[in-house]
Amino acid sequence: DGETIAVFTKNQTNPFFQTVRVGADNMAKTLNAKTLQYIPTKPDSIPEQLSQIEDVVVKKPSAIVFTPVDYKAMVPGVEKINDAKIPVVNITDRSAGGKFLSFVGADDYSLGLETARFLLKTLGGKGNIVIIEGVKGSLTNVDRVRGFNDALKENPGAKLLASQPGNYQRLQALQVMENLMQSNAQIDGVLAANDAMAVGAIEALDGANRKAQVIGINGTKEAIDAIKSGKLLASGDYNGFFQGCLGTMMAVRSLRNQPIINEIVLKPTVITKDNYQPFDQPLEQRTCPTFEEASKLGAK
Amino acid sequence: MNAPGNAAATPLLELRDISKTFPGVKALDDVSFALYAGEVHMLLGENGAGKSSLMKVLCGAYSADAGEFFFEGKKVTIASTADAQKLGIAVIFQEFSLVPYLDIAQNIFLGREPKGRIPGTIDRRRILADARRLLDTIGFDIDPSVIVNTLGVAQQQMVEIAKAISQNARILVMDEPTAALSDRETELLFALIARLKADGVSIVYISHRMAEVFSLGDRITVLRDGRRIDGVRPADVTPDQLVRMMVGRTVDMTYPRNFADKPGEVLLTVKGLTAASGISDINIEVRRGEIVGLCGLVGSGRSEVARAIFGADPVASGEIVFDGKPISGEPDVAARRGIALIPESRKSEGLALLRSVGDNLVVSALRKLFPSGLFDPRSGQRTADGLIRQLRIATPSARQTVGLLSGGNQQKVVIGKWLAAGAKLFIFDEPTRGIDVGAKSEIFALIDRLVAEGAAALMISSEQVEICHVCDRAYVMREGRVAGHLTRNELTEENIVRLGMHHA
Amino acid sequence: MREAAVVSQPNPLQRIPGVAIVLGALIVLFGAIAPGFLTPANLSNVLVQSTILSMLALPMTLIIMTEGLDLSMGAVLTLTSLCVAIVSLATQSMLLGLGAGVLVGAAFGTVNGWLVAILGIPPFVATLGTLGMAQGLSLIVSDGQSVVGIPHGVRDIYSATLLGIPVPIVIALVTYAAFHGLLYHTRFGSYVFALGGNREALRYAGLSPNKLLIAVYAIGGTMAGIAGLLMTARMNSGHPTAGLGLEFDAIAAVAVGGTSFERGNGWLLGTLLGVIAVGVLRNGLNLISLPSSVQVASVGVLVIVALFLDGLRSRA
Amino acid sequence: MTDIAKESLSPPRSFLSQDAIQLFYRLLAVLLICAVLAVLNDSFLSLGNILNVLRQASLTFFIASGLTLVVLTAGLDLSVGANVALSACVAGTVIHTTGSPALGILTGLACGGIVGLLNGIMVTALRIPSFIATYGMLWVLNGLTYWYMAGETLHGFPAGFRQIGSGYLFGLPIPVYLLLVFLGIGTLFAQRTIWGQEIYAIGANPVAARLSGIPVTRRLLLVYAVSGTMAGLASIIFLSRLNSAEADIGESLTLPAIAAVLIGGTSLFGGIGTVFGTFIGALILTLVLNGMNLLAVSANWQPLVTGIIVILAVWLDMKTRRRGQ
Ligand SMILES: Nc1ncnc2c1ncn2[C@@H]1O[C@H](COP(=O)(O)OP(=O)(O)OP(=O)(O)O)[C@@H](O)[C@H]1O
Ligand SMILES: Nc1ncnc2c1ncn2[C@@H]1O[C@H](COP(=O)(O)OP(=O)(O)OP(=O)(O)O)[C@@H](O)[C@H]1O
Ligand SMILES: [Mg+2]
Ligand SMILES: [Mg+2]
After folding, report:
1. CA 20 to 30 Å from A47, out of A75, B326, B410, D145?
2. Which residues contact B235 (CB under 8 A, 6 or more apart)?
3. Number of Cβ pairs closer than 8 Å across A and D?
């Protein structure tokens, strides 16, 4: 009891990581452990997260729950943790190297694939589609966009008009959408690699008095609200809350010499008008899954 | 025009038919100039006559549009400062050429540092020793490892001189070297000039001070409007004649004034003024219709009094009453109440050099001219044009960049902005520094007119003659305090010096 | 006797307080409240973490002394880091990688110098422009992806030790010594003072301010190249955003260290202390695990407080 | 007529005329870019796209216009982006809790203005160089915003409020009206008020300005406060246009705003520049991004192209000015 778990997330601006942190805190509380949050002051800064690892290694927490800001560039950092013999669980983005007790994440590819399939099904398998990508080169984005594209391939009736980056940023997505609407008279569907961009695209459509079906990914609160009000067609649930819960759970369990699951890839859930209710409650009121539930969640 | 000593000598350096045009200004127009070995050659002329420009051409800093150079009779080209240095020409410029955060030794030998053992390094011991020796020869007692930034203007001037001397120059150009020097340092400089002359060094000396022209000069060349007017020997001319050559008309150098018999009501009372800037217990009174002098040695704290009254420096204690009411605060308060400061350094403190004459002329009067707060460029332009006419500022138009005007005209612009603002008390800090005789008399006439119309003036000047000529009375300062007061009848140079000297 | 006694001799130590007070206070504070702060391992940590920034901040000091600025350094470092990664990956040679990084860095530095000195574009603008170019090139050559799989030797640069001292610290110390020698003991150093203090003086001394200025910026770019190697070694990969924004940290460190933006008034050791102060602050806050938002604000507070203290003393 | 001859030799340097020449060159540049884009892409010249460009330029312009005044005094405000983020979050909260957009707008403007004022105090009373002071402020504001938002977003605002950012009036987007209004106010303020004149004078030589009786400290406070308030205004536009606020919205706004000021011909050394120039600077930046979107150029090229444009614009500006003198 009383273990300290250092939780590393990428930034304090993206609501997704807030859900991860709340999940971790929540689980730690139920297990009678303590969390310490480490977040780079500059969002997604590689050197800063490396420094934080070095500092934390000095501090020697009982275990670490780790989201790399970049899955390749942080490998030396992970190896430092390994060298210091601190047990570490990888969550969210799968690190390209290093030894982990366990990985807990969502399958970005199937998230992209399933949400896009849902949108295309709603459109009847045809229509003019645009993709708004996230940050180029980020693992989440690469896989999500691959999923989008594969779904498009399954529907030859659909036409991809453009695939432009919005860097996961609302304003950029809004402006990209505004500009795309100028050169494309008819846009039927928008595949956005996250909710903020999806909502930005919706604002652009609203501003131009145009309609299109839009999907996002992450299942954030604003996405749920938008789904409720019918503006957003769907959002893929990335389930940061569970990732935080389960990462912490595995870390603590391994410290207590209890069995753990080495890999949990959460199954994609497409949140739509029909199934949003469970997601529509404040984070603080959600409860973490138990170990038994976890084993059913998608362990491979 | 003959060479000094023997008539057969060829000039050491000769410039023939030099012309140089700047956009809008013909700075030099077919000027010829000859310099002989071992002479002190005075270069005279009004502000903007082209003296500095000629010297910059001579030392390769400016390239002439036309003209030829001869060194010891042989034709040479001076296309860069390096060319000039090879010929042994060294210059002390009007604007300092020192690097503030290097020490004295490094400044003296900048670009000619003794090489250390490791390539690229400086031999620290040698540079200090060399500098030490050099400073000793010019009688400047200071540690050469002192950073230049901490030196006063006069000390910096001495470093400039040391720097020039260090180049073993055969020709030394000094552009107004005494403008910032105290009497003691001026004497040192004159002694040094005598020594250099004896060693056969030729000196070109630019000055607006008549006394120096006659005490130092072997020959005189006068420029006007970029043309060479004449070359004479001091023995053959009177000051009045020289002035006429420079200005093209006669100028009364006694600056006649209509002294008021009865001074007006009290405008400014300073009681027990003390400030951290180094002045204490200053008591001064200025009445309408008066010009009150404030004299003393350089560093005696005159500027600090002026700045404290104007609110430019914080006041520690004491009281300033202006026009019947106490005054305190920043310069904007003083300005609004009707006090004007014409600061010591017009370039850095008086003008926005890159802005136009018109912009500079109206800047202090904005509130008065446009009480609504709305600015009307056309009306501003008219006000500026009026002032340009009234003050006879020589400028192509109100739109000319003020930094391109000559010093005297720049000074008029600084005064002009306070005329527009309707100031009642004018504080002049060295109003005639670096200004030619013609402009000087115009400025004094202007001050006279201002006080005759009911304003008052407090005038700081290092030229005691000027104080004696134009002031109704004067305070003399010493070491941050008022050492004495001189009435119109007592106002003589001897009295000023006696009161202002240390240990008097 | 000598007038030097009258004139206040400018003691470079006079400038210490601003940074030194802050640094001293931080060390005392964290020593008292942060567990593990004063351990050798942690102190070595702080210093190692400060090396990359110091390698930007030292040349930045020279650039600021010329009344200039180099906003492109962080982006150039990013680009050179990618170059190191790409070239050493392709050739399997660390030296060729370093060579490529230094070459690209020096090229950017030279372009900066050329824009500033020859075209006369204000440094802020010129280097804001090259910042964009370097950032764009980084994205283009990497297509936004990390570059991995580089030879193992590269990584050792960051993690190996020499006589028990971590190699990055050795590199930083050598760099500092080199810059100290360059600035205070060579002719070039004197000319750097003159570039900011009085460019005319250089011209009259027959020297070319333009060439010197280009040299100063080129040194900045070259150092960004070398720091790029360290960055690559640290991440064992290249990444197109790795160094973005570091230039502002470097500028802040220089300012905190007491170098003024005017008239060639610079202090190299102050810069180093400034860099370490930033490092100590971040490290200490990590150790006591304050909320991350406090950490974000604390850097800003540090900068403001240090400059405020400096201002107090210069007025006194 | 010798006077006229002289004048043509040393051309006008003030009362706007030199600036007018520079603005003319810039408008030419805008037309050139437009012509190129029109040739390359059919949809560029559509009314919809032009309004689109204007609306996008307006956000940059609001931030950059206040910044222009700061730069005119030879200062810089690096905190504008962070200020937009904080103000948006604060204003958003007020609207959510009170339900009153008017109150929210006022709070947003006040929050921006207070931050600006604090910048001004650091620059004047504490005498910290503006570049450093506002860089410090940037981090303080980020910290505050991160703490306040705790990783959440605010979204969903009343429809009336959202009209400000996304609504239309007589076929024109409302931000475009605001843009015109503030362009007019800014230009009048800088060129036709004595405060504006004093700001130019301070930028040209702060020491001389103070000794000319200009209350330099108060004017600087005003300028930084205005810059902050304009950031507050931008935050309102942002909020109503995106219908949401999050902590990181400011990061991408600062450098474009500075770039717009510089492309617009305002000199970092102070005393030279116009608000209208900044508008054109914002327009050029937006046009280029818009063009790249329309032509589907990879976003990887955006920083590169922006960098080249900044250098080119300032260099051309200097060229033409030098020829003028
Ligand atoms: N760099 C320059 N650009 C434009 N005009 C200049 C430049 N330098 C000098 N001038 C102009 O050339 C003329 C001669 O200037 P110069 O400095 O030689 O005068 P001066 O005789 O030294 O005057 P002063 O006694 O005031 O020093 C003046 O009208 C001046 O405005
Ligand atoms: N003792 C000194 N040490 C260093 N610098 C000095 C000293 N005395 C005067 N100076 C410098 O000489 C210049 C003129 O002196 P300052 O203005 O300080 O005194 P002042 O009493 O106003 O002189 P003045 O009476 O000539 O106006 C100043 O720029 C100052 O820096
Ligand atoms: Mg001159
Ligand atoms: Mg004085």
Report:
1. D145
2. none
3. 99
Domains, in order of start, for chain B? 1-88+170-229 (3.40.50.300), 92-168 (no CATH), 266-500 (3.40.50.300)
Q: What Cα–Cα distance (Å) separates residue C252 from each residue in A129, A189, B50, C73, D130?
A: 46, 46, 46, 13, 12
User: How far does chain B reach from its first CA to its final CA, in angstroms?
Assistant: 47
Host H or E run for residue B458: strand B456-460
Enter the pTM of the model: 0.87
| Chain C residues whose beta carbon lies within 8 Å of the beta carbon of residue D144 | 293, 297
In a domain, D254, yes or no: yes
Contact yes or no for D232/D109 (Cβ under 8 A): yes
Lowest mean pLDDT among B108-117, B493-502, C178-187, D29-38: B493-502
Number of domains in chain D: 1
Q: Is there a contact between D194 and B367 (Cβ–Cβ < 8 Å)?
A: yes
pLDDT per residue as tens digits for the range A54-109: 888 888 899 999 999 988 889 999 999 999 999 999 998 889 889 999 999 888 89
Instruction: Give the end-to-end CA distance of chain C in Å, rounded to a whole number.
Output: 26
Q: What does the alpha-carbon distance between residue B354 and residue B360 come to, in Å, rounded to a whole number?
A: 10
- Tell me, in angstroms, the distance from the centre of ligand 1 to residue B409's CA: 11
- Asked whether the predicted pLDDT for residue B114 surpasses 80, the reply is yes
Across the interface, whether the CB atoms of C239 and A46 are under 8 A apart is answered: yes
Spatial distance between the Cα atoms of A46 and A69, rounded to a whole number of angstroms: 6
Q: At what angle do helices D254-263 and C123-142 cross, to 10 degrees?
A: 130
Determine contact, residues A264/A289, Cβ cutoff 8 Å. no
Helix or strand or coil: residue B280? strand
Query: Does B300 sit in the ligand 2 pocket, CB within 6 Å?
Result: yes
Residue C147, beta-bridge partner list: C238
Residues 6+ apart with CB under 8 A from A205: A177, A181, A190, A211, A212, A214
Q: Kindly give the distance from the C-alpha atom of residue B364 to the centroid of ligand 2, in angstroms, as a whole number.
A: 27
Q: Output the CA–CA distances (angstroms, integers) from residue D94 to A223, D106, D143, D233, in the order listed.
A: 22, 10, 20, 15
Distance CA C294, CA B66 (A): 68
Test mutation, D4, D10, D14, D124, chain B, max B CBs within 10 A? D14
A25 and chain C in contact, CB less than 8 A: no
**How far is it, in rounded angstroms, from Cα D224 to Cα D70?**
6
Asked if C252 and C278 touch (Cβ cutoff 8 Å), the reply is yes
- From B85, B99, B143, residue closest to C198, measured CB to CB: B99
D1 inside domain: no
The parent domain of residue D298 ranges over 18-319
Alpha helices in chain A (DSSP H): 15-30, 46-59, 75-83, 108-122, 139-154, 170-183, 195-207, 221-228, 240-255, 291-296
Answer yes or no: are the C-beta atoms of B402 and B410 closer than 8 Å: yes
CATH number at D226 reads 1.10.3470
Residue D56 within a domain:
yes
Q: What does the block give as tokens for C70? A: 């180099």
Contacts of A47 in chain C (CB under 8 A): 52, 231, 234, 242-243, 246
Q: According to the per-residue pLDDT averaged within each range, which of B132-141, B231-240, B293-302, B448-457 is highest?
A: B448-457
Q: CA D204 to CA D219: how far, in whole Å?
A: 14
Has residue D6 been placed in a domain?
Answer: no
Give yes or no for a contact between D126 and C308, defined as CB atoms under 8 angstroms apart. yes
